[in-house]
Amino acid sequence: MLSTWKPLILTAWPRFLAPSETHGYLCLVPLNLTTSTLPWSEHEADCLALVCDESAFLASPAIGLVAEIDEALGGALLSLAASERFKGKKNQTLTFPTFGRLRAQRLVLLGVGPAADLTPNDLRPAAARAVRAANGFGAHAVSLLLPSGLQTQEHAAASVQAAAEGAWLGTYRFDKYLSEDKRTPVTVTDVQIALPATPVDADLAPALARGRNTALAICQARDLVNEPAVAMTPTLLAAAADALAKDCGLSIKVLGPEACRDENMGLFLAVAQGSDEPPRFVHLAYTPPQPKKRVVIVGKGVTFDSGGLSLKPNDGMLDMKVDMAGAAAVIAAIGAVAREKLPIEVHALAACTENMPSGSAYRLGDVLRSKAGKTVEINNTDAEGRLTLADAITYGLALEPDQLFDFATLTGACMVALGPHIAGVMTNDEGLGQDWLAAARQAGEEMWRLPLPERLNDMLRSEIADMKNTGERWGGALTAGLFLKSFVGNTPWVHVDIAGPATADKEAGHVSKGGTGFAVATILAHLRRLAAA
Ligand code: BES
Ligand code: MN
Ligand code: ZN
Predict the structure, then answer these.
(1) Ligand 3 centre and the CA of 347: distance in Å?
(2) End-to-end alpha-carbon separation of the chain, Å?
(3) H helices then E strands: how many in the chain?
(4) pLDDT tens per residue, range 491-516
């Protein structure tokens, strides 16, 4: 018998849907981001944040902006830096109260390491640290002074974009379920990104806009992932996608179980059949006039992965609300594509379901027919992601894309191989794989190529069906990739296993604890590169 009891959701959900006057989403504190070419002494901010490489402290006496500011403070800054052993090393932070001797009440020095290694990507975590520090002492306006090495024609736009992203991401918090008195309010309202060193010809407004747009999408993805599974069921995830579609002018199609049956999505429906929550297949589309390319992005949307009858132990299940991080990434990213009006046609697909054990759950040994027609024998119900993705990929291929990507918290094995911070990238197209990795480098997201060795296909061989859903223990990330590859055909395809980086167990730089919004930035970087090509 199906249960009709529904748990009480604590707060009116979803915050994602709740419009606020300034930006449509309450997850973000409205932040007024601007650029400036004023010298440091003319900034009116109550917090002056200085991105410091090590060069100033290698010279004796110190040189550059630090020395200049130190002089205005009668030598107090460098003497404090010396006593605190602040040398501009990566992640070192020094806060200095100016006691009325500067316009800014506080100075924050943000160490970023050796000058020679500095890239615009270093500004993302630095800007987030600046905002967090400023917020720690209740500042409202922050002026972020970029290091002169990055204020070049070559780096200016990328630096402004990265700093804008970092500043905004630094305000992110998921505190809606905390009582009012347990929340730390965000006080920072204004961040000015200052590049006074060299006059820059480039129009920095588009870079700033890209930074804001990217950060907004990342925060939306984080919100979707951070919601507990009770508040992010397939139905509610589809509702969030619907709200985003209305907000960004996307078209949306949501298929329920009957429509999925009409689509012959036998693998997806088998995973869904054990849950009391009905599945939802979400198809968001952004179709600009005369697109340069058509790209399909598929995201794994398992809103809770208990493992099914191959039930996970408590520790393995604890974090499994994050198993829809791929779906969150593609949904948030397509919204940003529409806001930015890129000349690329994009379709975001997410087969959303829970994976639950019950009397109606799919079983070990079951043989299922995929949308593509191929049959699959189930030898582990916890390898559910590849089943949902296979049918979504088949649906996506019917759209005849130039490129197809999938993003999935797919295997623990990928985390064993690459650790918790790096995503695994597998592809059937060398060139596209390289383009994707280049976009990831530009976006500052860590990804690493893994192979798809054909001979491991033996592990997926079944006696009674076209294939099994699970291989042996070794090479678990690769056999998952090979399983997907067998559904892709010749379409250029990239599979991104984000099981590790989709969440973080502690805050670091611009990355928040919990859902990270991983992959959104690279999706946007890749599509912008396609648009510019
Ligand atoms: N959602 C999990 C993978 C996962 C693990 C994501 C840890 C994030 C953190 C996936 O559905 C799964 O259970 N994979 C199995 C595959 C195995 C049964 C072949 C795994 O990794 O153990
Ligand atoms: Mn699983
Ligand atoms: Zn899973």
Answers:
(1) 23
(2) 56
(3) 16, 19
(4) 999 999 999 999 999 999 999 999 99
